[in-house]
Structures are given as structure tokens and as C-alpha cells.
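Morning, I've got a small favour to ask if you have a moment. It would help a lot if you went through both lines with me. I owe you a coffee for this, so here goes:
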Amino acid sequence: MSSPLSGLRILVLEDEALIALDVEQLCRDHGAGEVAIAGNLREAREISAPFDAAIIDVMIGGEPTFDFARSLEAAGVPFVFASGYDKLDEIFVDFPDVTLVSKPYAGADLIEAVTESIRKRARSADS
């Protein structure tokens, strides 16, 4: 049985270094081929490699990531929000089909959410 993220390139946009490293290892443990960590929006925008999926925090250094999330949507990159900011209406209004995994979260829940976002994007691309 293959790992759910087998060979995929994952972007992690997270400003808490320990959380970012944990998520990186979690993705690698589930087969990710490459995991890039961005600790701020500038770094995220500078990463040139295309990604198969992304895990993004809602707030990075006090700045919302919604514009970056919209750019991912426009590029067709599936993503999930992983954040302690789970009560912001903008998440649910502007991104109704994007899963929010609330911190603190179990690793299995995060991987399942990422895997499902990839499946949903593939289904919508096929139709």
C-alpha cells in the first residue's frame, strides 16, 4: 500500500518553527517527496517549485494568509488551513470547500485533510 502523500511536493506555510518542523516530518513520514517550509508570506511567494498541495496557517506574523490562499486556488493547488484561528468568518465564507484543521491537531487528522483536499481537486479536474 502506498503512502497517502507518496512522492508529492508539499508547501508548509507556518511561522512557528517547531510546528513547521513537525509538519515537515509528518509529511515525509507519509511519503512526501519534498517539503518546503516558509515562515512568512515573502518566503512562500519566493519558493518557485510547483507544489502538489499546501498546508497553511491562517495568520503568519499577525498577517492573514487569505490572499496567498486565493493564489493557490487560482493555480489549482489543493490546500488546507491548519490554524488556531478557527473562528474567523472569512475562512468559512471565502473558502467554503477548504478544510480547516484546528490547532492543536492530531497528525493523522492533518494528513487525512491534505489527502482529501488532493482527492477533491483531482475529482474537480476530471469533471
